C-alpha cells in the first residue's frame, strides 16, 4: 500500500532518505541509480520511476519527474511527504546563447517563470531561485571534475514548441505573444530553455525545501534543433557525474 497518491512508494521504502536526484526522463533514473551503491528499484507508475541508492552509506532517492511543471510538482510534493528535503534536478537543455556549446554544463541560479504550475505556489512576483547550498555544491562538484560550468538564469516553459519559440513544427507558426521571445531572453542573458526548474524552485523555496539544478547542453538553438545521440549521451554522463558529486557533498 502506497503512502502517497501517485508515486506508489512508502516512507519505509525510502530508508530515511532526505535527498532526491530528480531527472525528467524515467529511463535516466535507472542509469543514475546504477552509479550509486546498492541500487534498488522501487516503483514505476506513469512518468514516475524511482530507485534507491546509497552514497557513503546514506540513502538517496532517484525519481523521475516527467516533462513539465505539473508532474514535477507532484513528484516533489509526494517525496516531501515521505521525508525528502533536498531536490537536485539533472536535465538536458537547449542553450540560446551563441557562446555556449553543445557538451557544456549549465548550473541554474534562477528561472524565468514561463510555466503555470509555479503560480499555484506563489504569485509571479515571487522569484524562482535555487537554494544557495545546492548551487554551491553543484558548482564545486563541476570544478572539481575539471568542468567549467556556465552559471545563470534559465527560461522555464510549459511547452516545448511554442513556449520556446520553435518553428520546426506541424504548423510552422508561433502564437503572436511568443514571437521574438527567444531574442528577448538572449538579450537578457538567459542561458537556456527547459521545462521544470521554475516550478521546482518556486515550490521548494515557498515550502522551505532545498533545490538546485544542473543541465547538460545537447543543442544550441542558434545552430541546430535536433541533438546528436552520441553527443547527448556523453553530455548526460557529464551532468550526472556532477549531480552525484554534489549530492555526496550535501550529505557530508
TrEMBL record:
<dbReference type="InterPro" id="IPR010058">
    <property type="entry name" value="Uridine_phosphorylase"/>
</dbReference>
<comment type="similarity">
    <text>Belongs to the PNP/UDP phosphorylase family.</text>
</comment>
<dbReference type="GO" id="GO:0009166">
    <property type="term" value="P:nucleotide catabolic process"/>
</dbReference>
<keyword id="KW-0328">Glycosyltransferase</keyword>
<dbReference type="Pfam" id="PF01048">
    <property type="entry name" value="PNP_UDP_1"/>
</dbReference>
<dbReference type="GO" id="GO:0009164">
    <property type="term" value="P:nucleoside catabolic process"/>
</dbReference>
<dbReference type="InterPro" id="IPR018016">
    <property type="entry name" value="Nucleoside_phosphorylase_CS"/>
</dbReference>
<comment type="pathway">
    <text>Pyrimidine metabolism; UMP biosynthesis via salvage pathway; uracil from uridine (phosphorylase route): step 1/1.</text>
</comment>
<dbReference type="InterPro" id="IPR000845">
    <property type="entry name" value="Nucleoside_phosphorylase_d"/>
</dbReference>
<dbReference type="GO" id="GO:0005829">
    <property type="term" value="C:cytosol"/>
</dbReference>
<keyword id="KW-0963">Cytoplasm</keyword>
<feature type="domain" description="Nucleoside phosphorylase">
    <location>
        <begin position="18"/>
        <end position="249"/>
    </location>
</feature>
<dbReference type="GO" id="GO:0044206">
    <property type="term" value="P:UMP salvage"/>
</dbReference>
<comment type="function">
    <text>Catalyzes the reversible phosphorylytic cleavage of uridine to uracil and ribose-1-phosphate.</text>
</comment>
<dbReference type="GO" id="GO:0004850">
    <property type="term" value="F:uridine phosphorylase activity"/>
</dbReference>
<keyword id="KW-0808">Transferase</keyword>
<protein>
    <recommendedName>
        <fullName>Uridine phosphorylase</fullName>
        <ecNumber>2.4.2.3</ecNumber>
    </recommendedName>
</protein>
<dbReference type="InterPro" id="IPR035994">
    <property type="entry name" value="Nucleoside_phosphorylase_sf"/>
</dbReference>
Amino acid at each position: 500500500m502506497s503512502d502517497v497518491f501517485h508515486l506508489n512508494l512508502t516512507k519505509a521504502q525510502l530508508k530515511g532518505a532526505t535527498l532526491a536526484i530528480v531527472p525528467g526522463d524515467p529511463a535516466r533514473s535507472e542509469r543514475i541509480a546504477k552509479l550509486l551503491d546498492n541500487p534498488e528499484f522501487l516503483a514505476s507508475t506513469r512518468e514516475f520511476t524511482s530507485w534507491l541508492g546509497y552514497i557513503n552509506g546514506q540513502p538517496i532517492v532517484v525519481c523521475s519527474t516527467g516533462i513539465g511543471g505539473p508532474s514535477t510538482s507532484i513528484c516533489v510534493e509526494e517525496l516531501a511527504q515521505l521525508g525528502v528535503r533536498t531536490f537536485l534536478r539533472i536535465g538536458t537543455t537547449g542553450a540560446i546563447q551563441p557562446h555556449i556549446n553543445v557538451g557544456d554544463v549549465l548550473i541554474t541560479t534562477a528561472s524565468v517563470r514561463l510555466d503555470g504550475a509555479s503560480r499555484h505556489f506563489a504569485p509571479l512576483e515571487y522569484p524562482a531561485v535555487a537554494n544557495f547550498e545546492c548551487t554551491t555544491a553543484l558548482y564545486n562538484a563541476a570544478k572539481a571534475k575539471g568542468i567549467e560550468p556556465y552559471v545563470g538564469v534559465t527560461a522555464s516553459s510549459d511547452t516545448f514548441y511554442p513556449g520556446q519559440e520553435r518553428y520546426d513544427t506541424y504548423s510552422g507558426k508561433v502564437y503572436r505573444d511568443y514571437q521574438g521571445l527567444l531574442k528577448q531572453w538572449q538579450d537578457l542573458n538567459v542561458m537556456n530553455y527547459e521545462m521544470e526548474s521554475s516550478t521546482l524552485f518556486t515550490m521548494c523555496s515557498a515550502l522551505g525545501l532545498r533545490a538546485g539544478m544542473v543541465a547538460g547542453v545537447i543543442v544550441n538553438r542558434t545552430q541546430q534543433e535536433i541533438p546528436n545521440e552520441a553527443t547527448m549521451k556523453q553530455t548526460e554522463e557529464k551532468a550526472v557525474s556532477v549531480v552525484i558529486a554534489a549530492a555526496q557533498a550535501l550529505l557530508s
